[in-house]
Amino acid sequence: MNAFDRREAGAHADGLLARRLANVGAASVLFYRQPIEMVGGRGAWLEAADGTQYLDFYNNVPSVGHGHPRVVKALQKQIAALNINSRYLHRTTETYLERLTATLPDHLSNVAMTCTGSEANDLAIRVATANTGGTGFIVTETAYHGNTSAVIEISPSSLKRGKPPAHVKTVPAPSARNYGDDIEGGFARHVKRAINTLKRRGYPLAGFVADSIFSSDGVYPGPPGFLAPAVAAVHAAGGLYVADEVQPGFGRTGNMWGFERHGVSPDIVTMGKPMGNGYPMAAMVTTPALLDRFCEDIGYFNTFAATPPAAAAGLAVLEVIEKEKRVAHAGTVGAYLLERLKAVQAGDARLADVRGAGLFLGADLCRDGDPALPDGDLATRVTNGLRERRVLIGAAGPAGHTLKIRPPLCLTTDEADFFADALAATLAAV
Ligand SMILES: Cc1ncc(COP(=O)(O)O)c(C=O)c1O
Questions:
Q1: Binning pLDDT at 50, 70 and 90, where does residue 1 land?
Q2: pLDDT tens, residue by residue, 193-239
Q3: Which of 9, 28, 59, 79 has the most CB within a 10 Å radius?
Q4: Residue 412: strand, helix, or coil
């Protein structure tokens, strides 16, 4: 999706691009046909080597803003003082974990820190299988949960060929297109059917893993509460509900956690991306009982996780979210942006749907405005047109036709206007 094609353009590459291709080879993934060299970032803006300032509507990692001074300072101070693994006691780490679990339901009180969301989900899979005796997993059709061998199997969006293995059953994403007016009932029915299918195949349910805003499926917040009957069915079948908060967590949806919109109670929460505002940290949070059972057979240690610098970065992020009221801000600026996008939609039928929760929005581009005709090519042209207007954005969904809108949470209404105006101008030009 809107990626640099090494085979198409690689032969003509020179300078830094040629060095990248030589160094990274086939594993290199770069945005845009003409990749951008970045040199700096502040707030919601990135600076390229040629001096161009880009509004970052792509990146939910630096969620409290690129280079936020409070996070930078906390990290610098701690790294200068001590950076050591978690087999020693350290006050900042315990303070951080207490502050983090205070944002979650009471039963979720044990934290296994990791360095990536993939590791957190890998661990969630292992905790779920150890506790349920099941091996079957349910995920949505275009889900992405990470890149380890086990997690790739529950990440159908990564499979360029073929289908997920037999122990994984997919259900359609919670969109109006898939379920009409009854997203709640239709989604729960599909989850129940998936539970039975897995059982028939010889894989009793271990878990239902759901990104709380279904980002890679195309950003589907769904109506508040719609997940509850599906989660109840999972629990009735003896499975665990894993809320993947790697994308929606830490305030983005206008709630601290995406699952809160649905009034559901996860057995496991995984988190990452915005957790350290760019410092690589992630976690799996669960109940003491579930973690105890898992640790009877296998312990868990992760060299670079739960270090004092990770705790310092994570603590600073929580402090900024609280002091700068970022959860409420995501709700109000997100609602403003959604209204602006609806106005753009009213003037251009190809923008078939806009939706979102807080500062996580999706905008579908379709031929003739028909939701049955998703237009991934148009989304690519719009993405590149926006780049020319100094906005960076990505696309998601099975056809790559959904603009994935998730700017840093410090976004102002002026910056929301900048984006909406750029989108309108781009649509008029493509
Ligand atoms: C919903 C979701 N879960 C998990 C992951 C994996 O996180 P990481 O890239 O930190 O391993 C991602 C990454 O994009 C994600 O979007």
A1: low
A2: 999 999 999 999 999 999 999 999 999 999 999 999 999 999 999 99
A3: 59
A4: coil
Q: 15 in the Ramachandran plot: left (φ > 0), alpha (ψ -120 to 50) or beta?
A: left
* Section 382-389 average pLDDT: 97
Domain boundaries, the chain: 36-64+325-429, 69-323
Q: Provide CB contacts within 8 A for 430, sequence distance 6+.
A: 378, 381, 382, 385
Spacing, Cα 390 to ligand 1 middle (Å): 26
The domain defined by 69-323 folds into: Aspartate Aminotransferase; domain 2 (3.40.640)
Q: Which of 234, 206, 408, 209 is nearest to 326 (CA)?
A: 408
86 lines ligand 1 (CB under 6 A): no
Q: Cβ(353) to ligand 1 under 6 A? A: no
Residue 11 has pLDDT above 70, yes or no: no
Distance 225 CA to ligand 1 centre (A): 24
Verify whether ligand 1 is closer than 6 Å to residue 258 (CB atom).
no
Our mutation pick for probing the ligand 1 site, out of 60, 212, 246, 279, counting the most ligand atoms within 8 A of Cβ, is 246
Exposure letters 279-305 (e unless 16+ CB within 10 A, then b): bbbbbbbbbeebbeebeeeeebebebb
% of the chain at pLDDT higher than 90: 92
CATH superfamily of 36-64+325-429: Aspartate Aminotransferase, domain 1 (3.90.1150.10)
Measured in Å, residue 200 CA sits from the centre of ligand 1 at: 30
Give the tens place of pLDDT for each residue, 280-297. Answer: 999 999 999 999 999 998
